[in-house]
Amino acid sequence: MASRLNPYISFSGDARQAMEFYEEVFGGTLRMHTYADFGGKEAGDAADKIMHGMLETTGGFTLMGADNPPGTENTPGNNISVSLSGEDADELRGYWDKLSGNGTVSVPLEKQMWGDVFGMCTDRFGITWMVNINQPQT
Question: pTM for this one?
């Protein structure tokens, strides 16, 4: 297997719902393991929380996520965004519609000064997404 680089998002107790939502948005195969799967009885109150989740899509996307381990703080901030880009406008607009639904749009998905169609939103789980529809180079 070749090396890969992909986002890994930390959640504060709602990783299962978030990862299932992203599976609805992007399709693909979602695998999730709880703290109980690996820690058994020692998982305590975190037993049903997600220790590791991975979504792999037929389009080549990989998104990982998990609930923070017990006793650690989850402080979402503005230091990371997940970027989607490509030339398939219909596909990217479909992702945009789902991600921005019940979320907050900070930059509407529209043509920008550099010529591409771009938008930025924060989904209902507090994750910032950037969508860029590349315009063909002439």
Answer: 0.82
Digit-coded pLDDT (tens) for 56-79: 999 999 999 999 877 777 776 666
CA distance 128 to 71: 25
CATH code for residues 82-133? 3.30.720.110
Of 49, 67, 48, give the one whose Cα is nearest residue 8.
Answer: 67
Q: What is the DSSP string of the chain?
A: -------EEEESS-HHHHHHHHHHHH-SEEEEEEHHHHHGGGGGGGTTSEEEEEEE-TTS-EEEEEEPPTT------SS--EEEEES-HHHHHHHHHHHHTTSEEEEEEEE-TTSSEEEEEE-TTS-EEEEEEPPPP-
Q: Which fold has domain 8-67?
A: 2,3-Dihydroxybiphenyl 1,2-Dioxygenase; domain 1 (3.10.180)
